[in-house]
Amino acid sequence: MAKTSKPRRAARRAAPTKPTITSPVRPTTPANTYTSKPVSIDFAGPTHRFESADLQILDIDHSQASYEGRVFFNNPKANAGTPKTLDQGYAGSFYIFGHGGCFGDVGHCEINEKLDSYDFRDSHPLQPTQARIPVTAALKQFAKTNSKISITVVPVVSAANELCDTKNVFHFRQMRFLTYDA
To answer: Are 62 and 127 in contact (CB under 8 A)?
Structure first.
């Protein structure tokens, strides 16, 4: 009987490799802080009456790492080790639960506008968010002796993976004070 050869199998193509993502960890290098130019707080002086005040931060990017944003008044040198006390200018904190970078295909994390007013689909999950930080005590304290203050935000990154930029984590469009009368 003649010997028959076995048909050769086609060589398998290797699947495209995806980056290996490890469990999120706390970064060892601090994130960049943001300090505003001095802003007027004449509206909060002792002769003005307001019951409470918030600092509102609009259009915060939350596509990267998770972090606590510590807000300080008149302390541009504040960092993650600065005590959270009024005498250090601490006014309050906000927390961002980050998405940890983009895991999808190209274009997956691009935010598209709604096509028309009758588009009732939910907005994209990466639409910018906002934060409101109660700053009443700090604002009243600083308004006693200052007509202007600088606002420093210190991002303290709590968890990040290889896809996150942990140095430049805090991005926003606008900040403003909101005051409420009794």
So the answer is: no
